[in-house]
Amino acid sequence: MSSPPTFTVRRGEPELVGPAEPTPNEVKPLSDIDDQEGLRYYSSGIHLYRNDPSKKGVDPATVIKEALAKALVYYYPLAGRLREGAGRKLVVECSGEGVAFVEADADITVEDLGDVQSPPFPCFEEFIYDPDNGSECIIDRPFLYIQVTRLKCGGFIFGQRFCHNVVDAPGGMQFEIAIGELARGAAAPSVTPVWARDILSARCPPRVTHKHLDFEEPAGGAADGIITTPQADKVRHPFFFGPKEIAALKKHAPPHLRASSRFELITACIWRSRTIALGYPPDDEVRVSFIVNARGRSSAWLPEGFYGNAFAFSVAATTVEEIRNKPIGFALELVKKAKAGITYEYFQSLADLMVLRGRPLFNILRTYIVSDISHAGFKDVDFGWGEAVYGGPAKGGEGPIQGVASYYSRIKNDKGEIGTVVPVCLPADAMPTFRSEVEKLTKEPTFDPYDTIAE
Question: Which member of 164, 214, 284, 352 is catalytic?
Fold first, then answer.
């Protein structure tokens, strides 16, 4: 996408928006899944909306601010503040102090921003209110910072920063959808919020029953080029996987794995290609880690309306030599096995590990982290102006995973094909090799290597 034109954003004075009605004054503990060191940061998102002629004279900032105050009556813990107790345990003081809100105006149009279909959003810093300039201090701060930017074409941008310890992406979406419903005149949110953080808290006594590789250092001694390379020496490029690319990946896989999902095929392809491109020593361990959410799983142990953190990282690991020298089926098998291993007991073990090991940071050394947001419904947040033109993360990765993570988004390319786009960030000198490896796996093989040749 070409660079947007020069423009100016004029922010008004920030204010705190509290619940529209009195709410309980109490203290609520976070779960031990919420209370991870690696989640002590703000996650940023953006929704872009076109002008609606029927809304002439209606100010989106006013509509959203009023709906926000109503939504906070139901989600009143989000109007509180984090406090830190013994053992750095986080609790929410439901103080009703409110969330930060700022109105802004920009002399730019929706069209000027181009056809944005995947993160990062162009010039996202201008549309996100960040008074702390990137500081990840979360104690005694608002849980949510919102900026509504009116565009000169009549459209607007809803930008937000949410404290990750309190909500995950689906939880934040649930809250934003509730704001939209109230903005459109609903008497109450369609989904009643549920706190229930005790479900994902440590047992007494805690006991770790699963391996959690994401909190262990991988074997080997090599530095990670993607981490040590200065940001100025990295490049980011989107890779598109449409029907032809997926069909080719299946042909490169062994017959018993050709029914693998789109996500599994793409992840195996990128993990293998990325490992080769980064040139790690052959005996070093490399990993791929992907987010698995507890919502909607067959066990159905998480209540509808739960808006806390309900995800875990599933990890596949092997040596550089194995992933480089074996066909893609090897990596694909590892991905499928790791994806299938997440159960309620795994989540419970993770919560127990947090308590027993003092809430460690997850390890990202020689690890590629992926998150499939293609069905997250970010565009469905409707404040009365219809579906968003763009909805999703503001950046290409945040917090501890910045620079080592990719979001998978569903888009329509310029040929009209529906597929998955994966923005990949690598050192500039590694990108040509990566591109070459991906091209090998996404081109139809000239023969099926798994066919048996008759004598």
Answer: 164
Which SS3 state, helix, strand or coil, does residue 105 take? strand
Q: Is 5 helix (H, G, I), strand (E, B) or coil?
A: coil
Instruction: Compute the mean pLDDT over every residue in the chain, rounded to the nearest whole number.
Output: 90
- Write the single-letter amino acid at 78: L
User: How many Å apart are CA 106 and CA 126, to the nearest integer?
Assistant: 9
The per-residue DSSP string of 213-279 comes to GGGSPPSS----HHHHS-GGGEEEEEEEE-HHHHHHHHHHS-GGGTT--HHHHHHHHHHHHHHHHHT
φ and ψ of 258, to 5 deg: -75, -10
Closest to 286 in 3D by CA, of 303, 297, 273, 295:
273
Evaluated on CA atoms 267, 217, 400, 91, the torsion sign reads positive
382 is catalytic: yes
Residues 201-216 pLDDT 10s: 999 999 999 999 999 9
Q: Which helix (H) or strand (E) holds 354?
A: helix 344-356
- Residue 414 annotated as catalytic: no
